[in-house]
Amino acid sequence: MTSRIWSILRKEFIEIWRDPRSLAFILGMPVLMLLLYGYGISSDVKRVPLAVYDRDGTPAARELVRRFTSADYFVAVTAVQSLQALRDAIDRGQARVGLLIPEDFSRNLGANRPAPIQFVVDGSDSNTASIAIGNISAIARSLELAPRDLRPQVFILPSGERIEPIELRTLVWYNPELKSSNFLVPGLTAVILMMLAATVTSLTVAREWERGTMEGLIASPLRAHELMVGKILPYVAIGLVDVILILLLGRFWFEVPLRGSLLLLLGSATLFLLGGLGIGLFISAATKSQQVSFQLSLLVTMLPALLLSGFFFPIENMPPILQAVTYLVPARYFMVVIRGIFLKGVGLAVLWKELVFLAIFAALMLLASAVKFQKRIT
Amino acid sequence: MDHGPAIEVSDLTKRFGRFIAVDRVSFRVARGQVFGFLGPNGSGKSTTIRMLCGILSPSAGFGRVAGFDIAREPEQVRQHIGYMSQKFSLYEELTVQENLDFFAGVYGLWGTPAAGRREEMLAIGGLAAHRDVLARDLPTGLRQRLSLAAAILHHPPVLFLDEPTAGVDPISRREFWDLISAMAAEGTTVLVTTHYMDEAEHCHALAFIHQGRLIASGPPAELKAAWQGCLAEVEVEAAALLPALQLLQRQPQAREVAMFGAALHVTVERPEVLPALRAALEAGGIAVERLESVVPSLEDVFVSLMAREVAP
Fold it and tell me: What is the chain B residue with the closest CA to A217?
């Protein structure tokens, strides 16, 4: 029995090694996806172009602009001389934010009166706009520490009333800089692993059907479970190589901290991989065609892992029906596990429920494919 | 293993939905025999072999291979057979040697015994010089020898070969059959499908299968002897071949007319009617180059058996 499993294992490794495309897919795809997504969907909004319409023209006004542009969140790209020019700059996309400093700005400051200034924000990209607004208020709040003569009034106060402003001090745990790569890299690991596990296994089994080699295997004393184990183990190994690749890239390129146990991470990644491999085996046993099973396994793993796992979109914001569906998506559970291990440094005591689900999912998928994987063609 | 026949099949049937691929086929093959399975494409030969190898389960009927019931003991059957499928079923990305090592492992051979078998197979198949060549780079003749080597590596008592020589050049075919005969002489039972009639002559016994049914079986000599009537070979100019065929088909004395290479084969009841055929052809303006009775070949037997199946 072991000689049979060992034979399959060795054959799989030789086949992977001799097929440059599969090797490139297995090793290149995770790196490519990590780099693409890691940069492409960064939600850090920095160096937002700012158009300034300074009607005051005093040193105090210039100091205000300097304060807003010194922190790298905004770059003054143009100085305009009319409201129409400000509008044009935003229309053309030259600037995303406009700053209007009224002509009485420094006079109001000098008289110790509230000195309102106005920001115009391009709301066509609502995500960037809301982050830019957040940054504007953060900078405006910090101006309270400015010299007495440079205290702009940006709060909108109810008329005539003087309220005691509530001082808001937010404390962000786990990802204090709110760096998006800290959030994305662990999440991407889940997406990449699920996709890779399902597609690669579905291809390897479907190839045996397509090339007619499966018939030879069926007529041999090889048993279904031996074939399955021999097919699964190499891809678990490859999946773990990818985990380590992603880990190294995440740790040293994106500088994502790994706060929890590496061993627990690899262990839970293995459970997650087994589920994905089970999906791939099941699909390829059912379809027997490389093309169909590749597309099908991509469809049933990639979209749910991207959209229904809480990777991009918080599950709490989904309509109840979709929320119910997410309970069936293994990536949802692995997302919690991997973010927990990476960012929070939590262990089994917190994550056991998710891990139990992943184990059950893997067991069910493998069982289902074993049934589907009957040795007889009919 | 008991001492019964190597393969024993009775009323074996396979249905795919409403289509009956194999219809109540029965035959036996004695140990050490080469048994030829003949029939046109889609006649049910491969389906029968696949049932006997435990790849397909029979819909009805009974089969025993190497003493094991194919429906109830497929695992034991698989231990005792070698199977070479119609399609090249080895791993193209593996070398000759790696393929053999793989199948040795699949059959539970490991280490020194496995290496011994591998070398034996490389020698038998004349593959030793090509051991490090990828299977996909092998010419067809060598591929097919590699397939055979992989199928017999574990010394199976019963060997199933499905169209083993399709697309192989005549010299390789010849060598292949020498190998098969040698194995049978050493006691291996071989069931082989083919549609090359010259290959059928190598078999100890034959079975003709048509539309899923066994229409005749027996040793080649018996099949030829059982064939009744008189066979004439007619040679005419190439241009007149088709008109001659059509003309002969209209003659009431001609039971069957078929193309046979560049000539025509006409089956008649008695040799006495042959001059009448010649006269008919010449009356039709066709110059007859040769018209004489010949000994029927297996192909003639086969064609007339088939014609009888289609006619009534």
Answer: B106
List, for chain A, all residue ranges whose pLDDT scores fall below the cut of 50: 145-167, 375-378
Greatest CA span in chain A, whole angstroms? 96
A21 lies within 8 A of chain B by CB: no
Report A:217-236 residues touching B (Cβ under 8 A).
217-223
A373 φ/ψ sector (left φ>0, alpha ψ -120 to 50, else beta): alpha
Q: Which residues does chain B have within 8 Å of residue A8's beta carbon, measured at their own beta carbons?
A: 105-106
Question: Considering CB atoms only, which of B89, B104, B106 is closest to A212?
Answer: B89
Domain positions in chain A: 2-41+179-372, 48-145
pLDDT reading at B8 higher than 60: yes
Select from A332, A377, A376, A340 the least CA-distant residue to A358.
A332
Residues with Cβ within 8 Å of residue B93, at least 6 apart in sequence: A14, A15, A18, A19, B134, B135, B136
**Contact pairs from chain A to chain B, CB under 8 Å:** 90
Instruction: Give residues with Cβ within 8 angstroms of B115, minimum separation 6.
Output: none
Kindly give, in sequence order, each residue whose CB lies less than 8 Å from that of residue B250, ignoring residues fewer than 6 positions away. Answer: none
Encode pLDDT of A90-133 as tens digits: 888 888 888 888 888 888 877 777 777 888 888 777 777 777 87
CB within 8 Å: A4 and B94: no
A166-175: long-range contacts, CB 8 A cutoff, minimum separation 24: A174/A343, A174/A344, A175/A343
Domains of chain B: 7-222 (3.40.50.300), 228-295 (3.30.70.980)
**What ipTM, to 2 d.p.?**
0.78
Alpha-carbon distance of A34 to A149, in angstroms, equals 48
**Residue B193: what are its φ and ψ, rounded to 5°?**
-100, 145
Place of tokens 């055929």: B277
pLDDT the model gives residue B24: 93
Nearest to B94 among A11, A221, A222 (CB): A11
The amino acid that residue A184 corresponds to is L
Mean pLDDT, residues B220-224: 84
Query: Is A66:A112 a contact under the CB 8 Å cutoff?
Result: no
Lowest mean pLDDT among B50-54, B203-207, B269-273: B269-273
CB B165 within 8 A of CB B134: no
Asked if B166 is an interface residue toward chain A (Cβ–Cβ < 8 A), one would say: no
Please identify which residue in the block is written with the tokens 């190294």: A248
Residue in chain A lying closest to B70 (CA): A219
Q: Answer yes or no: do B94 and A15 touch at CB < 8 A.
A: yes
Contact B91 A18 (CB under 8 A): no
Residue A18 at interface with chain B, using a CB cutoff of 8 Å:
yes
Phi, psi of A167 (to 5 degrees): -85, 120
Residues A71-87, buried b or exposed e (16+ Cβ, 10 A)? eebbeebbebeeeeebe
Sign of the dihedral defined by the CA atoms of residues B112, B115, B121, B126, in that order: negative
Averaged pLDDT of chain A: 82
pLDDT at A156: 36
Contact A248, A29 (CB under 8 A): no
Nearest CA in chain A to B88: A212
Chain A contact set for B83 (CB, 8 A): 215-216, 219-220
Q: What is the dihedral of CA A231, A232, A235, A239, to 10 degrees?
A: 170
Q: Which residues of B touch A378 (CB under 8 A)?
A: 16, 56-57
Please tell me if residue A9 touches chain B, with a CB cutoff of 8 Å: no
pLDDT of A176 reads 63
Pick the CATH number of A48-145 from 3.40.1710.10, 1.10.357.140, 3.40.50.300, 3.40.50.2300: 3.40.1710.10
Q: What is the pLDDT of residue B2?
A: 52
Here the tokens at position B101 are 């090592």
Q: Which residues contact A72 (CB under 8 A, 6 or more apart)?
A: A46, A47
